[in-house]
Amino acid sequence: MDDDEAIARSLEGDLAAYEVLVARYSALAHRTAFMLGAGDEAEDVVQEAFVKAFRHLSGFRADAPFRPWLLRIVANETHNLTRSRGRRSSLELRLAGNADTRVPDDPEGAAVATDRRSRLLAAVRGLPERERQAVVCRYFLQLSEAETAQVLGWPVGTVKSSTHRGLARLRGEVGDELA
Predict the structure, then answer these.
(1) What is the pLDDT of residues 7-28, one digit of tens each?
(2) Which of 28, 93, 31 is nearest to 67 (CA)?
(3) Which of 89, 102, 145, 159 satisfies CB 3.0 to 4.6 Å to 37 for a cystine?
(4) Please, what's the largest Cα pairwise distance for the chain?
(5) Using one digit for the tens of pLDDT, what is the confidence trace for 108-161?
(6) Entry pTM
(7) Rounded distance, CA 171 to CA 160, Å?
(8) Which residues in 77-90 are b (16+ Cβ under 10 Å) and which e?
(9) Distance (Å, rounded) from C-alpha 179 to C-alpha 171?
(10) Are 29 and 46 in contact (CB under 8 A)?
């Protein structure tokens, strides 16, 4: 069942159809919340986002893609969480799901790669919030500029400039490792 059919059936009261959407986008929603600053509270953010999405499904534009609409709700919920904390959350990226569990043939190369990844993630954590959000959406979540703009509620030009500034700062921090 595609998104359009799942949405139409959900609007008719078919909860199993909405469960299809939840199953399809749950991992991405968790990753988004976590990377945008929810940290250990990502599960709560995502649950609230899916509840809000369900409540407001009747206002969803049928000609629009569901994924950016949902991620915008996740981003808003994450922003509400971090704002209510009264402080900026630290950014922790979970790479365990993407980690290669094979024993490396080249232990020295694996150690160097791990060090580079750690330095890059530390540099991403140190970016100003707007630049961090743009870089995370574009490169960690692999969203297009238009989807990033929709998720963050920014004009596309702001996404472009924030991404450009963030990448420039990262290049300054970690040098050629981004090339």
Answers:
(1) 999 999 999 999 999 999 999 9
(2) 28
(3) 89
(4) 57
(5) 766 766 777 788 888 888 899 899 999 999 988 888 999 999 989 999 999 999
(6) 0.66
(7) 16
(8) bbbebbeeeeeebe
(9) 9
(10) yes
Q: What is the C-alpha to C-alpha distance for residues 64 and 90, in angstroms, rounded to an integer? A: 33
Three-state DSSP class for residue 60 = coil
**Cβ neighbours of residue 16 under 8 Å, at least 6 residues apart?**
9
**13 torsion bin: left (phi>0), alpha (psi -120 to 50), beta (else):** left
Residue written as tokens 């969203």? 143
Q: What is the pLDDT of residue 66?
A: 95
CA distance 135 to 165: 9
What's 64's DSSP letter?
Answer: S
